[in-house]
Amino acid sequence: xxxxxxxxxxxxxxxxxxxxxxxxxxxxxxxxxxxxxxxxxxxxxxxxxxxxxxxxxxxxxxxxxxxxxxxxxxxxxxxxxxxxxxxxxxxxxxxxxxxxxxxxxxxxxxxxxxxxxxxxxxxxxxxxxxxxxxxxxxxxxxxxxxxxxxxxxxxxxxxxxxxxxxxxxxxxxxxxxxxx
Amino acid sequence: xxxxxxxxxxxxxxxxxxxxxxxxxxxxxxxxxxxxxxxxxxxxxxxxxxxxxxxxxxxxxxxxxxxxxxxxxxxxxxxxxxxxxxxxxxxxxxxxxxxxxxxxxxxxxxxxxxxxxxxxxxxxxxxxxxxxxxxxxxxxxxxxxxxxxxxxxxxxxxxxxxxxxxxxxxxxxxxxxxxxxxxxxxxxxxxxxxxxxxxxxxxxxxxxxxxxxxxxxxxxxxxxxxxxxxxxxxxxxxxxxxxxxxxxxxxxxxxxxxxxxxxxxxxxxxxxxxxxxxxxxxxxxxxxxxxxxxxxxxxxxxxxxxxxxxxxxxxxxxxxxxxxxxxxxxxxxxxxxxxxxxxxxxxxx
Lengths: 180, 349
Hints:
The complex is a heterodimer.
Chain A: E1 4-9, H1 18-26, E2 37-45, E3 48-56, H2 65-69, E4 75-77, E5 84-86, H3 96-100, E6 106-108, E7 115-117, H4 122-125, H5 132-136, E8 142-146, H6 153-160, E9 163-164, E10 176-179
Parallel strand pairs in A: 1-10
Antiparallel strand pairs in A: 1-8, 2-3, 4-5, 6-7, 9-10
Chain B: H1 13-34, H2 49-73, H3 77-80, H4 83-105, H5 108-116, H6 123-146, H7 154-177, H8 189-209, H9 214-243, H10 258-267, H11 272-293, H12 302-306, H13 316-340
Helix pairs in contact in B: 1-4, 1-13, 2-4, 2-7, 2-8, 2-11, 2-13, 4-5, 4-6, 4-13, 6-7, 7-8, 8-9, 8-11, 9-10, 9-11, 10-11
């Protein structure tokens, strides 16, 4: 399996929201629905506090509970990768994947009722391009690539900097890393 | 089949109430399926009263099936004498549950599609499959009873029903218990709660809906015993939640939830039907509480949209789906009693 991942440098992210706009434009999302979002969090211990911006989305987990819990296989892995997609034609709208996702990365597409989520812009990845959010980042804080390839930019970044993933304790093995 | 049923048999207060429920709930169901979204759900709070209705009725049907299977396996004549009536009850409740589920999923076809496109790692797929098998088993048993074919298949069918119904009730709990990101859901506890709540509500439904007889006495005994276990489970949960330091756990249990079951335990013999109804409402309260509370804490981006902790109250269309599910079950049970039990003397002890 090819394991794609995203590495986001929280030291460089300024929380501008360009990634959100780029995703919305690229994937033609309706008003009110986003596949990614920016979190503004506090980092450190008082009195040494700083603000941390994090661009968040589906973590395309290696152990994706949403894929396991989907009764029809509508939530599935793209080709031989960890990229989690939803087939709207197969989705019954049971919402089990929404309940299962610890990152709240799924949303109900209205009015059709199927579940939508970040696709890592697999249609761009297929052509060798980065996801729209990565391409549009003005501070170049976002990086995309194959995590198991030692020479990839994401692997080199992870080898050189301290990092964290979100909700590691859930056992989902997320593939979006945050450099701290 | 009873051919003596006349139009007057339908001109009763019970049928009037059932018809009102079918029309009001049916209109909401049809609107939800074909025209637009009426329920108070959002991208974070996804399972509301319509799903609670499905689980409530499906578990009650499971309880009735389990009581019947127990009677058939243990050769308890107080139960087996009422086989047909209990089968009609279990089928009616299960079809009422499926009606509520169809409105929740937005289409009847979506229910069928879950079976046709299987993912064996999914608890929801197992739940749908087990309840479909359960429905088929119940219908086969009813047809065998109607045609008078008893014998070699009775016991295997009873064992099959016992295993499938028990597994289905446990799997409903697993649908919630396997959700790792939501502390109010996660764990095996809910599977125990759903299995016991099936027995409590099923036994109480028999006491409530069947004429007083040896059957209702046996069912009352089962109701009292399982209500005691259920009250103990709720109490364990209350104590656990009071001491819990799990981040994001709101807690769904309350000591007030013990009241209906304690009342039923102590006073059942004085007013069996009233207290059976109280017990059923108590089970509905517990199921509603854990299903809704488990989703109230927003996990990610939805915290910005809906708040870190949401509040929920069912809206009128959702309440009408509860009415619809009960009305469908009641209509099928009444039709079964009127058309299929003419030559039965099952009401006698």
